[in-house]
């Protein structure tokens, strides 16, 4: 299994976990502890990061899917009697997803700048050890 396929599998498993914790009854929702908004931001940040890594050439599709997924899952909470949909929750989820995906795309865009410097450092280190 190559790295891209493994990251894709992780992204979809993470999405399944988020769907479960978003739509399950409140008592069954997993809690990491601490501030709930930070949990949401972190979960969607990891989701955005993993989908951006898995599908690097599909930036707009990934962003649209993350936005639709966050809004759609939040709206589906209205079906459950003990859950609620709030705009603030959607905003935190979208911000987390965009931050995670944006970090990948920003690094990919600017990684070329640092490659020569890192190669020079490695080359100098190998000459010193000889």
UniProtKB/TrEMBL annotation:
It comes from the Bacteria. Keywords: Membrane, Plasmid, Transmembrane, Transmembrane helix. InterPro entries: UCP033367_VanZ. The chain crosses the membrane at residues 60-78. This is VanZ-like domain-containing protein.
């Amino acid at each position: 299994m190559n790295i891209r396929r493994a990251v894709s599998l992780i992204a979809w498993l993470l999405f399944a976990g988020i769907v479960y914790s978003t739509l399950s009854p409140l008592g069954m929702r997993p809690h990491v502890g601490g501030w709930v908004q930070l949990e949401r931001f972190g979960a969607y940040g990891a989701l955005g990061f993993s989908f951006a890594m898995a599908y690097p050439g599909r930036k707009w599709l990934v962003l649209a899917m993350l936005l639709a997924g966050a809004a759609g899952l939040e709206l589906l909470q209205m079906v459950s009697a003990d859950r609620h949909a709030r705009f603030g929750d959607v905003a935190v989820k979208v911000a987390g997803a965009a931050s995670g995906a944006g970090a990948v795309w920003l690094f990919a865009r600017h990684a070329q700048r640092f490659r020569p410097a890192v190669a020079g450092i490695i080359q100098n280190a190998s000459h010193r050890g000889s």
